[in-house]
Amino acid sequence: MDPLLAFGFWAFVLTFAGIYAVFVLGLQIEVGDTGLINFGHVAFMAIGAYTTGLLLTNGVTVWIAIPVAIAAAAAGGLLLGLPTLRLRADYFAIVTIAAGEILRITIQNEQGTTGGTQGLRSASGPWRDFNRDVIDWFDGIGVELDRRVPLLVIVWASALLVGLLLVVLGRTPWRRVLRAVRENEDAAAAMGQPVFSYKLQALALGSAIAGLAGVLYTFFSTTLFPDNFEPIFTFVGFAILILGGIGSYFGVVVGSVVIAFIVSGTRFLDFPLDADKVAALRFVVIGLIIMGMMAFRPQGLFGKKEELHLDA
Amino acid sequence: MDQFLNTTINGLSSGSIYALGAIGLSLVYGILKLVNFAHGDFMTLGGYVAFAVNVSAGMPLSVAILAAVAAVAALGLVLEYSVWAPMRRKGAGIMQLLLLSIGLAFVIRNMILFEWGGDDRRLDVDQFQSWNLFGGVSITAIQVTVIATAGVVLVAVATMLRTTLVGKTMRALSDSFDLAEVSGVNTKRVVIYTWLLAGSLAGLAGVLAAIYTTLTPNTGWFLLLSVFAAVVLGGIGNAYGALVGGLVLGLVQEWSTMLVRPTYKEAIGFLVLILVLLVRPQGIFGQARTV
Amino acid sequence: MRDLRKRFGGLHAVDGASFSVRRGTVTALIGPNGAGKTTAFNLVTGFIRADAGHVRFAEHDISRRRPDHIARLGMVRTFQLTRVLAKMKVIENVMLAAPDQPGESFGRALFQPRRWRRREAEVHEEAMELLAEVGIHTHADEYAATLSGGQRKLLELARALMTHPRLVLLDEPMAGVNPTLGRRLLDYLQRLREERGLTVLFVEHDMDVVMGVSDEVIVMAQGQVIARGTPDQVRADERVIDAYLGAEPAAA
Lengths: 312, 291, 252
Description:
The structure holds three protein chains of three kinds.
Chain A: H1 3-33, H2 41-57, H3 62-84, H4 89-109, H5 111-114, H6 127-140, H7 149-170, H8 173-183, H9 185-190, H10 195-221, H11 231-244, H12 249-264, H13 275-296
Helix pairs in contact in A: 1-7, 1-10, 1-11, 1-12, 2-3, 2-4, 2-10, 3-10, 7-10, 11-12, 11-13
Chain B: H1 2-32, H2 39-56, H3 61-89, H4 94-116, E1 130-134, E2 137-140, H5 141-163, H6 165-175, H7 177-182, H8 187-212, H9 219-234, H10 239-256, H11 265-279
Antiparallel strand pairs in B: 1-2
Helix pairs in contact in B: 1-5, 1-6, 1-8, 1-9, 1-10, 2-3, 2-4, 2-8, 2-9, 3-8, 5-6, 5-8, 6-8, 9-10, 9-11, 10-11
Chain C: E1 26-30, H1 37-44, E2 56-57, E3 60-61, H2 67-73, E4 75-77, H3 90-95, H4 106-111, H5 113-134, H6 149-162, E5 167-171, H7 179-196, E6 199-203, H8 207-213, E7 216-221, E8 224-229, H9 231-236, H10 238-247
């Protein structure tokens, strides 16, 4: 196999994994730390992606587009959370999918603005040029870079930064309150903790991170389609969360790489089967992973059993 | 007026499919505390079994329907014994079961994809026959089939729930499992009946959906959120509520097309869902509980 | 002296009950099972909303306030069926209750590490002291899930006291706790009353404890207040005797 082709392939898979890692780190704050089961998480990624895309295609500089996109996603989280966070956990889960789908259907229908099902083309704007410039620069100093490398580096740098942020936050009393809220809201309230406010903060932060994933996705995918932001995306995210371990940030990274490999990486392995059938089997495997984990090791690969809060 | 009647017919068609799906989902949710995200894929399976019998094997639609119903009911029972009961014995909580059902949904859906491929399939029914009732109001043969079949079954189920011992027990358990268990009810038997009922109705709903729309591995999954909406609308655990909720949801979705673009009608349904959860989370028929 | 009053009336489980608790007293709330005592607690601390009536605490009308708000105002409760944070460590359970923690704010947690680390050390020390006071400090680094029922009661007590409350409502604080330790706790509570002016309202079934330690006793039955007064007065009150004999033949 052509070594360069193999590298390009790996760059693709790992970039995809990195984007998922950022996405799921946001989910981890909501689910793992605060106990909010948010099945609509992909909607905030969509907000981040489409905001970036729309701003860039309208000539806004990337330095403004990115923070605005992240802020928009966070605002979306707040908007969703304000009326719905007081609901019971399973109702909240259902509401979040419903909200996410409403957003996606709206994006799909407002063809004029978003390109609808035709897609928002060239959403990554000047990214292509920037990418080329970077490659050329390295070329100039004698290093031949695969064209996928800059994005790979940026994606994982982002994942690392977000991970670092969460680890730092993880040691603070702030996160301790989130965990208390997850654990037993009444007890937390009895201690004077404003439970609702903390849930909202977690949702806003998680959504902002999802928004960042959306920004990265726009650079990765260049054309945005509403179909990319279906609930399946969130559920695969949950698969990563479950595999890596609810509560473990390192687990998110490992889980992302494994699942990304399964989803897109197995393309190059030779199976005595039709390509379509292999595609179907991939998701059977992911489904089995979710089931197996939930049945036999609900804390995931790196989660702590004592801190598992799913059995409630 | 014509538009109103036409959309009403459309609403009753899709609504009865929702209702069939919702009753089973609601009872399983209420009695077994399982938010079954694989329920949509049960429906899809029903559609494909019917396809296999009706198109691949060339048998009449009625046989196909029976096969679909039986197949999904059987699957429900198999899963209960191999997955749900053991997990409950382990003390699995509602979220754990929910996530497990998501994994199951992936598995079922993709095994269907594996077996039958992703192309649109159609069952062997007359796609074009329709009758003009009066003025601009028309109804298709398919709609008649859907509404008639669903109608008969829904009435039968409603009667069963109301008059038979099993039915009443199911309703009681759905309200409070612990209470019913203490009062000496044979919960094991009720659990079996619940899955039989849920599976059968899901299978039927899948066949009707396949007839009414097209059959793809995603058919049931796409319907699932609307079915959830119907369940919530009627009150979780309340079978009558699910029935009414399904019909109401179908009607609301179709009527909304008189005001907004038809492509938005699903979104309208989800909006209704959110509003109901915010304003009256116990649904139309539920009793106010701590939410 | 200003009165620290709590007066309320609600419906159903609590049917038009009214009482007030004076500041700096140890008051016992007694009554047969089902009298509405825990419901009263829930109503007063904001966990349930009353259908009618109101609650006043230290010049504030708290009838419609959320539980966390009420707790921050200085009225804190424990639960009859303990609600500890099982998947967190014992010491964390207590530290969470400390007021004024800059580290609990997102912005300050991220950007002012030195400030909150200092406070964190203080909180940690105080938490250990409280745990020692209630006798479970050896379990500080274990997960709260490993504690026994009685130990959980003690943890809830430590947690409640950590908030530096003005009024603490204890729902059966001695249940499952061994008598010597229980005695020690009551002495501790009385000390707090003297040193800090802590007001205590507790639900208890053990009559020796009630009579020995309370300044005042309030008796509830069937959702209403049927008597109040000093322990001696209440003990001799016919209505009280009737209520207990009628509802619980083996009481007191």
